[in-house]
Write a structure and sequence with these properties.
Length: about 600
Amino acid sequence: MADNMVAGSEADSLIDSVGFRAQEKAALIWNIADTLRGLYKPQDYGKVILPMTVIKRFHDCLAPTHDKQIEASKATAGLEVRDGFMRRASRCSFWNDSEFTWKTLLADPANIANNFNDYLAHFSPNVTELLFQNGMKFQNEIETMAQAGVLYQVIKDFGGAKGDFSPESVTEVDMGNIFENLVSRFSEGDEAGEHFTSRDIVYLMTDLAIAADPRVFDDGRIRKTVYDGSMGTSQMLSCMRERLIALDSEASVTTFGQELNPFTFAIAKASALIRGEDADNMRAGNTYDNDQFKGCTFDYVIQNPPFGVSFAAQADAIRAEHARGEIGRFPCELPSTSDGQTLFVMNGLAKLKEDGIMAIVQDASPLYKGAPGKAEDDYRRYILENDWLDAIVQLPTNSFANTGIATYIWLFDKDKAPGHRDKVLLVDAKGAFVKRRKGIGDKKNDITDACRELIVQAYGAYRDGTWKGEAEDGTAITVEARLFNSVDFGFHRITVYTPERDEAGEIVRDRKGTPKVAVDENGKKLVDTEDVPLDEDIDAYLAREVEPYNPGAWYDPKKVQEGYTIPFTRAFYKYKELEPADTIAARILEHEAALEQSLKSLFGEER
């Protein structure tokens, strides 16, 4: 386990300050959206607001070096190596050599559309591609606003005193949180699986991944690569980078991500440019059938893929990849086309280095879904037999803005520490949250700093136990953990047959001496199944658990199936003793007496 985690108070203050600044700026931008009322439907405000936020951020990043960019542009006109000189002049990985600035744009209201288009056209190609081609396609919105006469007002609103998006005013972490805040606001109405991960959950995931990694430092330095195969706006990547740099200010952290949605991909690529990273590491496409990082492996994978989303359109390509077996990304039996979340897990495992760590969010279905040897069951076999599953952490319900279902962080380690090998820790953290004063959609609960620290502490102990603490608002918080051997989740499913008996109670056999199977009054054979623990002898189990209650019962060895299930709820079940019968009876009589008295008062007579 990494023992150089960010100091609690430092991390807490960072999260708090980021949240406040991001909410403040996001509220400002949201108010600007009022200008679009009537011209756009509320769910379409993002088509304008998000690109404008990106453009203003780029402008404010470039403002200090504006004159040097103009000089460099004139000096390098026509040169093939011009881009390198322009980046050097701008001190960013992008540039703009337009004579216009936000201030001069606002000085000419009559020509705002032409001047704004001219300004945007002078951005470096990596920015214009985002704005006008495969990403935001912002040209249509400029024309719409210009024709409606609101373009100048929108630009003016972003140019106000509170609209300062310079790095001095808004850090890259703040900026990422602003994007996340805005995208989540504009995403209302999306399917439950298409939710955005709030920052409290992302920080828990990053801290668990780092805590799981005994190799976080390499000769005293951090040198890591991080991948997200469904990156959205790339905030998980930026948070992981932030956490590692907090541990080592000179850390080398390179992020890689893939995203299907063109708009959120554009936001992710813009965020990478703003962070000064290689934006070419942010790539568009469907991870299922258009892997943009073939043959690449990474130190960390951190991901929140969609739940319950069909992959029917990519099914042929996925089956072809599955047919490649262990050299492909999907070696397990494939799940139903209605829900491909475990495909993201398999893709993530394929992208991990031999000593890599992955933290990924899933719903409850991968814990139990699938018949033995099929679909999700084979996925569980694969990860358990390879000894890659390190821990599963159940989150509080109502932790996400667009869904209130139970969710889990699955933590994988391809090179477990000796004390973790052949074991899996289940952590019940559903009691570690603080109620929000005001919910955001379905998100009613926050995993605050105190909650996060308690959860990481329970994981770090890697043993059975109960951890109790107090949240920031004084409420009690609890985390429970149960440690299992990996083999505990395996079983043999046997088919048990009940023998037919004659009037004397003897077992009826056919001519070959084989017992006949009994039938019920409807003529249905009396056949049942039993799940025998994988590390237990089947015959011994049958003799102990079945024979005393069903003498002569037998099973067919040819029909034995091997399966795996992770009974998370059962692991933390607490038996509650039933009330004595006389107590229940007394309470019923008390209710009856009260009802009788009410009727007497109503009708004025004994009944």
